[in-house]
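Suppose you are handed a protein chain with no further information: no name, no annotation, nothing but its sequence. What can you learn? This example shows the usual starting point.
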Amino acid sequence: MFALKQSYPEMSVLHSSATQELSLESTLQDLSLYDFSIESDRPGSEVAQALKDNPLLPGVVLTDLGQFAGMISRRRFLECMSRPYGLELFLKRPIKCLYVLAHTDILIFPSDTLIVMAARRSLQRSPELLYEPIVVEMEPRLYKLLDVHQLLSAQSHIHELTTRLLKEQTKSQMMQTEKMASLGQMVAGVAHEIINPVNFISGNLEYLSNYSQDLIKLISAYDREIAKKPPLIEEIKEQIEFEFLQEDMLKMIDSMKMGTERLVKIVNSLRNFSHMGESNKKAVDLHECLESTLLILHNRVKHSIEVVKKYGQLPPVPCYSGQLSQVFMNIISNAIDALMEQKESNGEPTYGWKPQIEIATEVIEVDNSTWAAVRIADNGPGIPLEIQGRIFETFFTTKPVGKGTGLGLAISHQIVTEKHRGKLNLRSRSLLDADALGESPQSTGTEFEILLPLG
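A reasonable first move is to predict its three-dimensional structure. Written in structure tokens, the prediction is:
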């Protein structure tokens, strides 16, 4: 039986258009592969002819009744042929006779193997096998050959591309960090300018309230002591609705007090949030950081989303409060976006779904260490399992173009893990995953757990 299948692709060079499209996620099937297989009972002369016809062919795949039986590289084949009486011994005999003498350890990879992983495994081989071609299994009973030079060229290109991308990302992240620092300084400056007049108003409202009550007491005393009131006084009292004025003025002053107190809280929250350039950790109340963040985001959640707080007993936690406030802001903002997107696209589902964010805190023991835990969970659509592993990557985002920078969770992860030596864990169940498992859509949602070391 004669079974010779051959297809000789043109050798691609490092800067070809195909190579330019390679990325860190590229696999072996993205490279040019050599499709040449021959039954092991065919004479060696047929292999010699194939290698002569295509000088770039790195070797041949041997099959036995269609099943993979081995591989002989060009180098091994020519070495055997160059030995004394090699031509006489092997050209007319079945190629399996030569394979007994020339076979070596073969590196076989599935076609979906990452190029960078295959290159690393290839370089780990012993020096005498370093340039042996690699066998790529495209599908059952279909094998192709990959020239190691092309693999290493592709890996070098990916390394260069990754280095350039990393530099661009680092530059962008530095710009974003500088932008956030500048924004923090601006917010701190604005808050500082606002707090003085706000404190002035707040401080004088108490006096205004006391003065108003004193004036009302004085007028009331006049009413009691003067039996016959002048007509002009009575006319003015009717015009200004004096009875209503007395009652409403005190209510108005109380409302102004509440408004200024809230304004003071907002300004203080902005000042706390703007402390992005803190040089030293301070022991702070995480509940105050959370409340400050919720206060800033109040306008986004007050009418649409229920916020459930389950605060436990937390001691003061050593941290950079401004940076942690940014983490809380990013995570809660993402939760709000997910909930509002689901509500706008689907309305409120028939199973009684109501958008909700739950914030819980407690002290826990993990790995024989004590941690302050902050969990921020939503009951939104969740994050699909296939992208959960990339959620903390720089610039990765599920939002459409123009919405978000993709930096929120990456920076949050960096702040928690690098700046605070903590942990940022993700737990999520998406609507797609729930449908696939036949589970209730009420089980969907996303939870971020922030663990900060105590002491």
